[in-house]
Amino acid sequence: AQPLPRRRALLGLLLAGLGGTLLVYMFSLAGYRGLAAAVVLLAASFVLAARPLPWRLAPASVLCALCLQLLLASWWPDPARLAAGWLKGPYFLFLLAALLLAAVLLPGPPRPDGSAAKGPARLGLAMMAWTLLACNLGWIAWHWAGSPALLPAGLAVLLAALMLCNRALRPPLWQLDRASLGIAGAAGMLLLLAIPVSASYYATERFATSAGDLQGRLRHWRQVLAMQPSGWDSRLFGMGMGSFPATYYWHNPQRDVPASITYAAEGGRPGNIYVRLASPGYSAGYGELLRLLQRLPVQPATRYTLALDARRAGAMPVLQVRLCQRQLLYPQNCVNAPLRLRAPPPGAPATAWQHYAVELDSAGLGAGAWLLRPPVQLELAASGAADSSVVDVDNISLRA
């Protein structure tokens, strides 16, 4: 319970709280780019503040950095003529200043006595690089969100400047040891992950609708309990593992029929396997489709022929076939196959197989570098009217 460690702890918590609040404010106006730039500036200040800075060189370093910043900003080409976004003036100059600061702070060649060369000139150059970082942080904020983002950017620069006074305290709040670097690195990673998630529009909307979501979940749970038989054994021990789909199918109060996917054998023979897609049947409106997905190596700007055999049962279903880019959940840049199921020809049974072949263009699917190319998937789904219907699919192929 010594007063000095307690004061250091309180000052550290105050600095961390100010930094976190400021980064949330920065993200709310300048987005991910402003947040990343502010984190880099604060991290640079954390490292630089543990060095014995030559404050007598500070005016000259700041003046040289401002002149260099004005020269490079005025000389930089028009952003409309630059292909890559990172080549735009604020982003490229910020990256250049960060690389310069990292190169200056790296250990230099050892002196004859075995110590590293970290003289005032190198630290003066580091202060110059820090000034360039601060200038380009404000430029990034203004470039991304306009004049309203200049206030959080200015506050971030002010906090970073206050951090540079660390060695003026007796004793300093931190030093470049393993414990300080570990705590600062963990705090930085936590803020970079937590702030975009907690302060985003999606999270705000989710928190705003949490009360309604809870009511909907309680309603679902009450409906599920109402589907159980009234016997004491099911109330105490449940109805068995895997019994919920069948229970919901037969006893859901809305009398909805969920979609299903089944692999079946033709005529009971195991040699010919086909897939059976049952469309959903809902008493009010339409539910989400159940899709069968398979990844395919598709070439861009290529004409393909999609061929399959299909047969239908029940009300007239719609077989949806398309190629889409999909990383996890959401499809993008889909190419639909113009496929319509026909009625059986005269004299043929209603469940007769029919062959279909349609052409489609892959457009931009499959384009891009190997690491940046989104996977392409073939999607099959059955949809229809309010009543459930069935489509069987076999012998499907996609050929150039």
Topology, element by element:
Layout lengths: L2 H46 L9 H18 L13 H17 L14 H26 L4 H14 L14 H21 L2 H8 L1 H18 L4 H6 L6 H8 L8 E6 L7 E6 L13 E4 L7 E11 L4 E9 L4 E6 L17 E8 L14 E8 L6 E10 L1
Antiparallel strand pairs: 1-2, 2-9, 3-8, 4-7, 4-9, 5-6, 5-8
Describe the structure.
The chain is α+β, with helices and mostly antiparallel strands. The chain folds into 3 domains: 3-204, no CATH class; 209-253, no CATH class; 258-399, Jelly Rolls. It has 10 helices and 9 strands. α1 (3-48) crosses α6. It starts with a helix and ends with a strand. The model has no long low-confidence stretch (mean pLDDT 83).
Short descriptors:
400 residues; alpha+beta; Jelly Rolls; five-stranded antiparallel beta sheet; four-stranded antiparallel beta sheet; 10 helices; 9 strands; 17% strand
